[in-house]
Amino acid sequence: MSKFVFVTGGVSSSLGKGLTAASLGRLLKSRGLRVTMCKLDPYINVDPGTMNPGEHGEVFVTDDGGETDLDLGHYERFIDEALNRNSNTTTGSIYSSVIAKERRGDYLGKTVQVIPHVTDEIKDRIKRLSSEDTDVVIVEIGGTVGDIEIVPFIEAIRQFRRDVGPTNVCYVHLTLVPYLAANGEQKTKPTQHSVTELRSRGIQPHVIVCRSDQPITDGLKRKISLLCDVPIEGVISAIDARSIYEIPLVLHEEGLDTYVCATLDLDVSERPIDLGIWESLVDRVDASDRTVRIGIVGKYVSMPDAYLSVAEAVRHAGFEYRTRVELHWIDAELVPDHVGEERLCALDGIIVPGGFGERGVEGMVAAAGIARRCEIPYLGICLGLQVAVVEIARNLAGLEGANSTEIDATTPHPVIALMAEQTEVVDKGGTMRLGAYPAMLDAGSQIAKLYGTEVVSERHRHRYEFNARYRHRLEDAGLRCSGSSPDGRLVEFIELPEHPYLVGTQAHPEFKSRPDRPHPLFLGLVDAALQRAEGRDPHLLDVAALG
Length: 547
Ligand code: GLN
Description:
Number of strands: 23
Strand order of the largest sheet: 13-12-14-15-23-22-21-18-19
Radius of gyration: 25 Å
Helix content: 25-40%
Bound molecules: glutamine
Distance between the termini: 37 Å
Number of helices: 19
Strand content: 15-25%
């Protein structure tokens, strides 16, 4: 049976619980343990798919089409394992299944209650992650102890230890140790209060990870240890790291993984840690001696978490080239009137990421046009492909008024449309294409060279598609459709051969980028951006050759 680590948070939200959990996952994996992870979210939405990314951050899509919390992106990037929809559970999904069971008569005769029915459902969701092939399941509980919504989750994980036995469970609690400048002291009181809250629910943490901007002194660790009844080795100082990828190394130095293994009865002497890959990654992060400026033109730019995986993916490509990526967040609604050609031309590359709805789309079309005319490297992701197609249709193919039917239902040239509209099927159910789909790349295309293969699989999340009825007219105008679905019906990738790098994908490649294995399309963008930055002649680099 697997062992379980539960990560809770106290004092404040946004302390980096997801990154702490993901870093622990990386450390355990680096000890040869097989790790999986999951996030329990106390909100009532059944999944985050319907939540505004401007408030909640991006929706991370798994291979099986799960629309999940952005923390799953951290998990995948750190532990380098593909997760699935079972790796994210919300209060809404728990209640949906409890209520469905009640209607089916599964609890016949019983009063259905939070304890035991909701807590049992939560425990079942956790238990189903355990398997023969998994040594440790790390479960992050969203929210902060003391929140009303979190109580059933805390109760479920309390019971869990009784169910599976004390040596199979480790509770890790993340808190904040603030520094008060007025008296020059770090304060432990908030930590004491949040541990008291946790204990009032029956959970005694094994580990307290203290977030702070300065190292926690040994004296302070002793105080926390005494007052919170945690051995001193279980008090971990987690200071702000220079890069998120350094966090596993910081936590390892503090002995986090050693101590967690000890509480789980896992003999560390049998499992020496190998952090080689991670250390060389962090060396590459530190070794950036060049800079490229990449503009991200979107509508949620005031909330960069809305594009978290895109930002990480472009940074990963920067690590490979030892290049610092300077991200410029550009509000699509300001293009081109307030952010025009001159401003965009000062960039070395432009990304138009995914998005839904009309707002800002004309600005994105304008940005794609400026990127095309001024030869600025451009990567269009999902909506970013669609706006590039619209722009090329209008300005290279002469299709006046061309648009996506999402933006203009009465456009004379629906170059992007729902599949149903393209095939004239009446039902516009508008279900999303979600999750991993294979695509075949056109041999010899720039994109096939970048991937180094002709069959790829990427994750999707969209309703609209390139309209095949316009394919020939757009190809005649210079567009290359460089990848399609295996049946040839859906255009999945485009490029503009005469341009240094104008590439679009209907998928979301950012979800599959790893810090030590950047995604080819982002490598292509950063390489082209570097060439622009350094005034080199743009030429196609075969990234596959980088190994
Ligand atoms: N709104 C577009 C569609 O549904 C693009 C979606 C996206 O960028 N993820 O097709």
